[in-house]
Write a structure and sequence with these properties.
By secondary structure, the chain is mostly beta strands. The protein has strands at about 5, 10, 20-25, 35-40, 45-50, 60, 70-75, 80-85, 90-100, 105, 110-115. Helices cover about 0% and strands about 55% of the residues.
């Protein structure tokens, strides 16, 4: 089955950290660019970060640059998003996605809530 499954979300205080995971199955993960996208309540999707299939190129939205780090382990077929110095405005549903054979694949997402 072709799918992406996110995990690692939760409730964290401002200034805290979380590490999200995106586990892939059913397709050639090691040849796919992976994106992290988030959607806050009442807002549209916001691109967060992208990592190349080799992992040598990463890009970030200005809103998370310097605080978030994207990485991947192609042997484990998993991508990660390390989130540090979290702010209340980072509260959102986070999901990973990729385009495989012209079809956008997206997981169900993992909720991140930053609050006291």
């Amino acid at each position: 089955q072709v799918q992406l499954v996110e995990s690692g979300g939760g409730l964290v205080q401002p200034g805290g950290s979380l590490r999200l995971s995106c586990a892939a199955s059913g397709f050639s993960f090691s040849t796919q660019t992976i994106n992290w996208v988030r959607q806050a309540p009442g807002k549209g999707p916001e691109w967060v970060s992208t990592i190349s299939w080799v992992g040598d190129r990463t890009t970030y939205a200005d809103s998370v640059k310097g605080r978030f780090t994207i990485s991947r382990d192609n042997v484990k077929r998993t991508a990660f998003l390390q989130m540090n110095s979290l702010k209340s405005e980072d509260t959102a549903l986070y999901y990973c996605d990729t385009v495989f054979r012209g079809v956008r694949l997206r997981g169900q997402g993992t909720q991140v809530t930053v609050s006291l």
